[in-house]
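Memo subject: From amino acid sequence to discrete backbone structure tokens
Keywords: amino acid chain, backbone geometry, structure tokens, three-dimensional fold.
Body of memo: The sequence and its backbone structure tokens, given next.
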Amino acid sequence: MPCQYNSVCVDQLNDYQCTCPDLYEGNKYGGKNCDVLLIGCDNNACQNGATCVPYLMDETQAVHNYTCECSPGYSGYYCGKTTTASFFGDTWLKYTGSDGSADISMQVNFATTLPSGLLLLNTKENSAETIDYMSLELKSETSLILKYKNQLISLKRITLSTLNDANLANGAWQKVNISVTYERVKLTLFHADCVNGLCWDSASLGTAGVTPLHHTLGDTYYGKNTAFLDQLPDDLLEIPAFVGCLQDLGIDSDVLLIEDYVEDETLSGNLASGCSRADQCAADPCNGQGDCTDLWFTYQCDCWRPYFGQNCSESKIFATLVFVLKR
């Protein structure tokens, strides 16, 4: 057998092909016979917890190289560029790089402790000089709501929750995907409390073979740019601004690098790179005299009687008045 180290040999016409195992006794092998120890990751430059994957560029010349598989929140050849941003309520980011393709795929990862917020809004003025739009919001901790409307289609609304209405505002990262084709718009949530890790629903936009009714991608706003919302329905105005962090924002194959937006006032507002925060209630800011609510970048105390104040550090003195009646 020419194939080494538990590789699989596939017989071909006057030839063969070896399929190498991922690892053999802790090492990775490649080459025609899977007998060349891959050393491309020795002294590699992968950053931010990325996984280095070695490969053989030229077996005859013994040329080795590697690629970096980035951890969530990073991109670039060496995974040195961040794709995570903090949103403070008045934060927004604008993406204008659509190529007008027929099929659209959008990804957004979010983390927050607030129950509701507008995650993204895609807008475009149509030929009737009205606004086509698609919006995604977190509603009451447990639901994602996707709204879709254009000049030819009445409002489509998809409401998505997990099997047991899991809390999506628990501070953990939640991964969401939106896909739009000629026929359908689909919302997918990747979550452990879903069948095979996927919860999804979709709405029909038309019939295959008929003139497509969906709009091509317009400008996409992440967060809430209030300067633009006055052109849209009142129900979008009522959605709270998102407070938390967004990560790995992707439209088709394009992943947004936050450094390209954070300093450009035409593409973002009050945007901060990274997601640096602490549990706001861990230090007991309510002094054990009230219930603390984590609001991501700050906190709120619901004080128990007789305590009051921002940190429940003040108290009221209740007096009992006794009246003595003289005869």
About this structure: Helices lie at 234-237.
